[in-house]
Amino acid sequence: MKIKALLSLSASALLMFTNCSSDDNNTPITPPATKAAVIQNYTNIVYQSYKDSYDRAVELQTAINTFTDTPTEANFTSAKNAWLTAREPYGQTEVYRETNGPIDTPDGGTEGQINAWPLDENYIDYVRDGSGGVTSNGIINDTSITIDEATLIGANEGGTGVPEKNISTGYHAIEFLLWGQDFADPSNGLAGQRPYTDYVTGAIGTNQNQDRRATYLKVVTDILVKDLKALVDTWVEGGTYRTTFLALPEDTALKNIINGAFFISGNELAVERMSVAVEQSQEDEHSCFSDNTHRDINGNALGVNNVIFGRYGNITGASFYDLVNLTDPIQAEKLKVAADNATAKVNVIVNSDSKFDILIGQETISSPGVILEAVGALQTQAAEISAAASSINIEL
Fold this sequence. Notes:
The chain is mainly α. 61% of the residues lie in helices and 2% in strands. Strands 1-2 form a two-stranded antiparallel sheet. A two-stranded antiparallel ribbon has the order 3-4. Helix 3 packs parallel to helix 11, helix 11 packs antiparallel against helix 13 and helix 12 packs antiparallel against helix 13. The longest helix has 35 residues.
């Protein structure tokens, strides 16, 4: 009896100890990140960010259809606001470029059809000169051209002159059709001032071919929605490219993932979208018609951060940073410091009282300001991304 009692007491004590330990720490233990987990989490992030981009584009399509059916000032404003909203999730997807994925594969991809810039306004519609004169060129004003999806897709980055600026589709073509050229002095804080009457058939004192302009705006938006839907469908669970991507050797998939962040941070965003605008002109802003460039920069930078740390919206999971931290905590800390600094420098631009077109006029390469300081931070981040990749035996 005494032996049984002692055994019973020991079991009870062990149970009490176990229960007490569980009560003191209910936080589940997170297993160390694996390459497979990082890759899987990335596919979830890519899918959801493209899905959000598509959903916002459908809302834009609805707003534009409402406006072109009933062209009023209020509906025009709603369409422009819908465009601004649609840009927020898409900006974060730019980090999936240069990853050998469907957005810009070596053999093609739809990036140039979705987000190409800068564009030659004269290729699409009428333009005004500095003295107020109007030149009615472009696809809209050439009535021999049928405005449909095949025509606009075929015309994108084609024609004579400078083909890469002959943009006929995508977000920035829509932006130009909604805002028009931005002739305003940057100090007045105004974006492009296209009148809604550009879409009112028979309106007096406005440019002609209003019906063709409305058709163009609807068709180009339909193309954007279809292109985004294709990206959603190929990245959804069981989708064609997601299946292909998950079947890649782990190091190949990781190299693709990391290269996108490296490319956007150190080249596309830092150089093409920021320092070039400082060196050249307002026309080289990413969203020069709507004055939304500061938000574009924010979205692109946030996309890089999403990939480094494995998160987007409510999605969190194993990340590139986690893998590096397991192998080389010192390099992981360098990566985190660089990422935090890049975020802080970009936030200075985003939260500035001055818009991007004013800021670029306040600095030069020899006299840098907040934009070029952010450029430097983004390029440092890119260097640490590369070093961090090397620490897990992946060379970019």
